[in-house]
Amino acid sequence: MRMSQTFVKSSKTLSGEGDSLNYQLLTRAGFVDQLMAGVYTYLPLGLRVLRKIEQVVREEMDALGAEEVLMPMLHPKEPWVKTGGWDSIDVLFKIKSRTGNDYALGQSEEEVVAPLVLSRAPSYKQYPIKVYQIHWKFRDELRAKSGIMRGREFFMKDMYSFHTTQEDFDAFYQQAKEAYLRIFKRLGLTAKVTEASGGAFSEKISYEFEVLTDAGEDVIYYCEKCDFCVEDEIAKVKPGETCPRCGKSELKEGKSAEVGNVFDLGQKYGKAFDMGFVDEHDQKQFPVVGCYGIGISRVMGVIVEKYADEKGIVWPESAAPFAVQVVRLGADEAVTRAADKLYDELTKAGVEVLYDDRDVSAGAKFAEADMIGVPLRLTVSKRTLAEESVEWKRRDSDETKLVKLGEVTAEL
Length: 412
Ligand code: ATP
Ligand code: MG
Hints:
Helix content is 30%, strand content 28%.
C-alpha cells in the first residue's frame, strides 16, 4: 500500500471521548475512526490487523474440527423469548420494525445456532457438532470508555459445540482451552485462565482467559510460580496470601482484560427449544452444549495496550498490518527508482509492504512509522544508496544496520 494513495491520514489531534491508550494510538495513527462511543470504523490499517487476528483464530478453530458458518445479526424475537433472554439480558439491543414486529441484534448466538444445529442433525451419528463464526456483535453496554476494548458493536469469534455425552463434552472443552492458549500465545499475549461461575448462562464452571493490563476492567489474583488465577469477585483467597495451589509464592493482584472464555451450557438450550437427537436406542436426548467466545477487536486493543511505547504502537508480527514499511527519504530520482523497485520486488515476493512514498520530511516519516508500528522499517536514501543498501531497523529495537539491496528478500 502506497501511503500517498490512501485517503487516511494520521493526525496529531483527537476527537471524541477517549482516555484509553488504545483509542488514542489507534485513532491518531489511522487504524480506526470513532463514529460514536463504542462504535468504530476499521480503516485500511485497522482492518488488516483485525483480519490477521481473525486468521490466527480461524486456523486454530479449524484445527479443532469446527466448521465455519455465518449467522444473521438480525434475529427474530421468538427464540429470545423462549430462552428468557428477551427480558433477562440487559445488554440486548431490541428493534421495533415499522410493521410492529420486534427484533433483536445478536449479542451472542445461542438462540440462532441451537435451533439451527438441532433441526439439521436429528441423529446421534452426526455428533459431536462444532460450529463457529467470526462476526459482529451488538451490546447495549452502559460504559464504552476503553476504546475498542469495549464496543457497543464489536468483532467476536463465537463457537458452539454439541455433544451426546458429558464425557465427550469434557474432553472437547479441554481441547478448546488448549487451542485458546495457543491462539493468545501466537498473538504475543500471555493469557491466564481463571475458573469462574458461568453467570447468566449457567451454574456450571467456565474458564475466562485474562491478560494482565492496566487498561482492563477486571481484577485477578494470581500466582507467578504456577497457573493459579481467580477473579476477585469470586475469590476465596486474598492477595498476599500463600498460593493455595503450589504454596511457593504469595498471590499478586492485577488489573486484566478478558480476551475470551468458554462456557459449559449443559442441556439448557436443547431443552429450551425442545429439540433433541435420537440416540442408539431410538430415545430422544438433549445435547450438552458449550460456547466459546474470543473478542477479536478487544484482542486488538489489548495488543496495542501491551506493546505500545512512548513513540506509538509496536505490533507483534502475527497481528501487524504489514510485515515491512519501506520509507523513501527525499525525492531524488535514483532514490525514488530504488525505493519503487524494492516495493515492487517485495510485493511480488508476497511480502506485505507499506510504502511511505510521500513527499514529507524524514522526521515526519520516521515519527509516523513509529506510531504505526510495522515490525520492520527499510529506509532508502541517498546515503544508503551510496552503499547500494537500505537501512534495516526493527520497531522493537534501536539498532540499525545496512543491508545490500539485492539481499533484502533473502534476509527477510
Ligand atoms: P465482559 O465481562 O468484559 O463484559 P463478557 O463476559 O460479557 O465480557 P462474553 O459474553 O463471554 O463476554 O463474550 C465473549 C468475549 O467477547 C469476551 O471474552 C470478550 O473478549 C469479548 N467482549 C465481550 N464484550 C465486549 C465488548 N463490549 N466489546 C468488545 N469485546 C467484548
Ligand atoms: Mg459483558
